[in-house]
Amino acid sequence: MGQRAIAVALASVLLCGAATGCSVIASEIDHRAGETTGYGSIAEAVVAASPRVLAVEDLGKSLNGFAYRLDLSLVTDSGEPFSADELDAVVEAIWGAVPWEPNAIEITAGADTTDGHEVVDLRAAADDLAPLGVTNAGTGGVGLTGMTERYGEWTGPQ
User: Fold this and answer.
1) In angstroms, rounded to a whole number, what is the distance separating the alpha carbons of residues 143 and 108?
2) Of 9, 11, 141, 149, whose CA is between 20 and 30 Å from 156?
3) How far apart are CA 20 and CA 24, in angstroms?
């Protein structure tokens, strides 16, 4: 009976400790995010970095684990897929302009052409941007992680 009570007490202590630790981490992240709101000059930086990008739309921020993901859509000049160099310039511009450190960036792109709205495929270009982690996002879009490994530590807008 005594061992059972000790085991229950130990499990309770561990559970409470884990819950407290998680809430401290979440509070710190919420506090940091609260200090840096908005999207800064992401749209301007991306348009300046790539002649193919006419505008940036649908900027969004969503909780992704213990940090935040940046979501955005690019309006481009044609429905042609991006090259690795074009996408690299866009992601590097985002990394330098975003006023809070995202743990992931999700990008979709499209163009309004004479044939209607066309989706721009970013997947092949993203696959060439090692060591970024790449997942499919939407139709032709990509979710990217590992920006620190490719572009260096996030420092915020300069």
Assistant:
1) 9
2) 141
3) 6
